[in-house]
Amino acid sequence: MSVTLSGPASGRTIIMLEEPARNPVAQDALRARLQVAMFRIVTIPIVDGLSAKSIVGFLDQLQIASGLLVGDGAGAELAWDLAATHRERFTGLVAIDRGHPRVPNADGIIRDGDCPAVEVDTTILAEGRSAHAVARASRRHVHADFRLVDLAGPRSSQHFTAQLATEIVMRALSR
Description:
Blueprint: E1 4-6, E2 13-18, H1 24-36, E3 40-45, H2 52-61, E4 67-72, H3 74-85, E5 90-96, E6 121-126, H4 129-138, E7 146-150, H5 158-173
Parallel strand pairs: 2-3, 2-4, 4-5, 5-6, 6-7
Antiparallel strand pairs: 1-3
């Protein structure tokens, strides 16, 4: 697996958990915006068998003590798990269209009924009624600042990339 580092070594760290097949052009544009803003970006591709424990191991090998977690899809699910179980390692969480593991998803499935609450500042970007309902229900499992944001457009749009970059910067600079 290819974990990549980009941006200045002295910048605040953003840990992006990415599904490789999910719009690589938009992901590259997002990383470029964050690098211009002087953030250090750790990109970890989501692959079968990747766990919260292995992500913490990668961060230890890279000597990264903390950072802001960002995830979409399966990346968001892992980000929630990391924020809940390794709270001392992360400064915040930005999740796209995913809620806390104890909240039933749009299909009524609870991923982890025993998942602890998250104690880091959290932003959820949500699109659609069911994603909003899951996000609102997740609020009770976040014991820190919570922000729910409507997605500005399709994930392939420049509006989405700009909005996500803004939310990441706001969350990263809030601590």
